[in-house]
Design a protein that fits this description.
Length: 192
């Protein structure tokens, strides 16, 4: 059995790297892309999920995070904000400033929320709007772009946003911290 429990996302590349007929152990929260799942069936590869542990403690909120190259540095700073806010996070990449396509990462974050492997999602690209549009294509996602504290509060309080998108080239680190703090501390007050 190959242990891939440290992976937050299994892609076709992971499946192609595995031997035909092998068994891959993944965590309970790992996302598997549809192409990876199809390829695993074709290659007779079994994916075994670890069962989550029952510790008796209240579960911390799990936040799916992602960024393109324009939001990478802010995503790395976001991790500290989430830790300070007592949230766990699952990082769907990117992991450098090398150019990538933001819709791939926005989709991974949105799917984690839609499939309920994460409670909420935060995606950062250069401007924020592209990732918002991409995430909103996933059924069950209500993505909102946060550009200040009021927009963050409104998106949660009145619209129940479950994914926040930020423009890493449009706001400062200090603004990001305040937007995220308000967004995470605001709940839906009106059923829509």
């Amino acid at each position: 059995m190959v242990d891939l429990t440290d992976r937050s996302l299994i892609t076709e590349h992971d499946i192609r790297a595995a031997s035909i007929g092998s068994t891959l152990r993944i965590s309970a929260r790992t996302l598997v892309t549809p192409l990876a799942a199809d390829l695993a069936r074709e290659r007779d590869i079994t994916l075994v999920r670890d069962s989550p542990t029952a510790s008796g403690r209240p579960q911390r909120r799990r936040i799916a995070i992602g960024a393109d190259h324009g939001g990478f540095e802010m995503k790395e700073a976001l991790k500290k904000v989430l830790e300070d806010f007592a949230c766990d996070y699952q990082d769907f990449g990117t992991h450098s400033t090398d150019p990538v396509d933001y819709p791939d990462f926005a989709e991974a974050v949105a799917l984690a929320v839609a499939r309920q492997t994460c409670d909420l999602g935060i995606m950062i690209d250069g401007a924020g709007i592209g990732s918002c549009m991409a995430a909103n294509k996933i059924p069950g996602i209500r993505a909102a772009m946060g550009y200040d504290e009021d927009s963050a509060r409104n998106s949660r309080e009145h619209n129940g946003a479950n994914v926040l998108t930020l423009g890493g080239k449009r706001i400062s680190y200090e603004q990001m911290q305040e937007i995220v703090r308000v967004w995470l501390s605001t709940d839906l007050t009106e059923e829509r």
